[in-house]
Amino acid sequence: MKRKDKELRELIGTTDEENSFSVITNFEGGIMEGEPTIEINPNDKLPILPLRNMVLFPGVFVPVSVGRKSSLRLVREAEKKDMLVAVVCQKSAQVEDPTYEDLHPVGTIGKIVRILDMPDNTTTVIVQGMKRVELKEITDIHPYMLGKLEVLNDEMPSQEDKEFTVLVEACKDLTIRYIKISDSLHQDSAFAIKHITNSFVLLNFICTNLPFKKDEKIELLHINSLQKRAYHLLEILNKEVQLAEIKVSIQMRAREDIDQQQREYFLQQQIKTIQDELGGGGQDHEIQEMKGKAERMKWTQETKTMFLKELVKLERTHPQSPDYSVQLNYLQTMLSLPWGKYTTDNLNLKNAEKVLNKDHYGLENVKERILEHLAVLKLKGDMKSPIICLYGPPGVGKTSLGKSIAASLKRKYIRISLGGVHDEAEIRGHRKTYIGAMPGRIIKGLIRAGSSNPVFILDEIDKVNSDHQGDPSSASLEVKKITAIKTNKEL
């Protein structure tokens, strides 16, 4: 078996490496030095060897794997009787028993050079392409396919044709360039290209061995003029070289991305190892739990992306660092907010009037104004964050009226006392960069309410103080503005 493997490799000029050219350069006097002369009687019937995906060109030797019983019988008889065979490519590789309609009309007359029975019980046939032919008809299909053929002569340019010489050199250069940048062919194949001096053989050699599409190879085989075939081959080579360069560029970028991801993963593992050594590796469970909660939150894609980005920062921070607790508190606050949770309003005016009368005696003008406000809210239906200002001396029921409004609407009730507040960070919240940073009272109120539409009571807002730490009254005014509530990123 080893001897046969070695014999096949020596015969077809390949090595154990993949993607080598299938060509015999030193068999029976070397590569053909020109197109042979073959005469075929139009009435003669020649055996036809259908191939599924391979297109054979004149002047080239190729190994062909034969599997059909009829094809095996054909090649063995052709070798024994020294018969010529017509090698024709099928239109569809899936057809098992092709007919005339299943074959391309143009093929190549070939000679069976040798048959090799391989160790894996397959049969490989070395075929020498000789002349292009046109298949006229199929006359027999048993024991193998027979048909009538017509020889097609190539139009050969003169040796003094400089344009053709330049074309051939351009095809050779592009092929060598393609081999260098592509991984579909062995790099040693460029050596074979450089040492083929016959233009006819070189062009057909490239057409046979380069991994073009089957339909493109069939188009090349149909062209009678060798010069026109060279032009068309040059177009295909230019396209394939460009595609190969794009493919290499994409692979390089993808490899760089993968390398960066691997580097980040390696560094993450190193950080975790160091943290474990320092006794700080117990936060993994907490981080994974936060990831799970984030997946269930009704967030926009932008919010989710921002949260995951901040979570990555938390993973990279050592638990003993002051920044860790700030970052953890920030993310836990985000998860605690009532994203997308709303209570259903009860806009029954009779119920609202009943609740107001039950909780408060008198105050008829105030109750009437509140009921008017609720009526407008019910009719319009889309009022955003309506604001009611209640003022008066202490103890007249301003705060309790707000509580009654929340009860009548069946909304959550949140009271925020602003008396004596002198730091605007109490309203807005602290910057995340500060140690011990906390959210503002508005955000804390939303978390306590568990709803995104509670009734907020900003109590004793007139007793807010201003000093060097800021003006809480201005911050409160900003919060109360409808546009600020919708756009303020600090909240």
Description:
This protein is α+β, with helices and mostly antiparallel strands. It folds into 4 domains: about 1-150, Archaeosine Trna-guanine Transglycosylase, Chain: A, domain 4; about 160-250, Methane Monooxygenase Hydroxylase, Chain G, domain 1; about 280-335; about 350-485, Rossmann fold (3-Layer(aba) Sandwich). About 50% of the residues lie in helices and about 15% in strands. The strands form 2 sheets. A 5-stranded mixed barrel has the order 1-3-4-5-6. A two-stranded parallel ribbon has the order 7-8.
Instruction: Report low-confidence residues grouped into runs of 5 or more.
Output: 1-33, 482-491
What is the C-level CATH assignment of the largest domain? Answer: Mainly Beta
Helix content: 40-55%
CATH architecture of the largest domain: Roll
CATH superfamily of the largest domain: LON domain-like
Proportion of residues in extended strands: 5-15%
**Count of discrete alpha- or pi-helical segments spanning 4 or more residues:** 17
At CATH level 3, the topology of the largest domain is Archaeosine Trna-guanine Transglycosylase, Chain: A, domain 4
The description of the largest β-sheet is:
5 strands, mixed, barrel
Q: What's the helix-strand series?
A: HEEHEEEEHHHHHHHHHHHEHHEHH
Number of strands: 8
Spatially, the strands of the biggest sheet line up as 1-3-4-5-6
The shape, in one word, is elongated
Helical/strand content category: alpha+beta
Radius of gyration: 43 Å
